[in-house]
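Repro:
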Amino acid sequence: MSFSLTDLEARVAERAKAPPEQSWTAKLLAGGPPRAAKKFGEEAVEFVIALAEGEKGPIVAEAADVLYHLLVGLRSRNVNLAEVMLELERRTAQSGIAEKAARPR
């Protein structure tokens, strides 16, 4: 199976067009960026707990939830995955330590 974050982003975009009563994605987006942010935060905490507990199944499930809700959050602010990937590519030009040191305080 070949399913990428780009595929997921396209699915989020498609489901965003549905009425909120028919699509979880559309319902989250109808609540605006604060709703998407809150849900992302909830999923991130669930991922952290699963990671700390260490069982692979829950880690995988919660990571999937985090990635999905991240893309919904990005869409809520009209940020696309390509922009995020460009930023990651830019950052790989130097070590993480050097990149962090170069950030404004």
